[in-house]
Amino acid sequence: QVQLVESGGGLVQPGGSLRLSCVASGSIFSIKTMGWYRQDPGKEREMVATITPSGRRSYADSVKGRFTISRDNAKNTVYLQMDSLKPEDTAVYYCNSHEPGTNWSDDYWGQGTQVTVSS
Fold first, then answer.
1. Rounded CA gap, 108 and 102, in Å?
2. Which residues contact 82 (CB under 8 A, 6 or more apart)?
């Protein structure tokens, strides 16, 4: 199975930047679609960004132009560069691993890292 460990969250002022990292172990990282999701208490978890094994990227409309997802297969790591942060970006951010061709219920999730955007 896959183990995912996120890091990089914290407190930042509006307009600031953070870079989240997710290190994967336990399976072949390069064949996985990786993603970042976020969730506030009482709200539905939403997709923020994904990147396929071939490098195709998708972003939520709310973060387009501000966030960038990337991956380093040699380090088994996926990143989320977050720029021009807004208070509404405040959430717990979760790393997701999905193997193309498998059921989404078989996905793996990290423990989450808190991002707080506040003055």
1. 12
2. 17, 18, 19, 20, 63, 66, 67, 89, 115
Q: 91-98 and 77-82: which strand pairing?
A: unpaired
Residue 57 near residue 51 (C-beta atoms within 8 A): yes
- Distance between CA atoms of residues 77 and 86, nearest Å: 25
pLDDT digit string (tens) for 55-90? 999 999 999 999 999 999 999 999 999 999 999 999
Tens digit of each residue's pLDDT (9 = 90 or more) over 86-114: 999 999 999 999 998 888 888 999 999 99
Angstrom distance (rounded) from CA 113 to CA 68:
17
- Cα 11 to Cα 101: distance, rounded to the nearest angstrom: 37
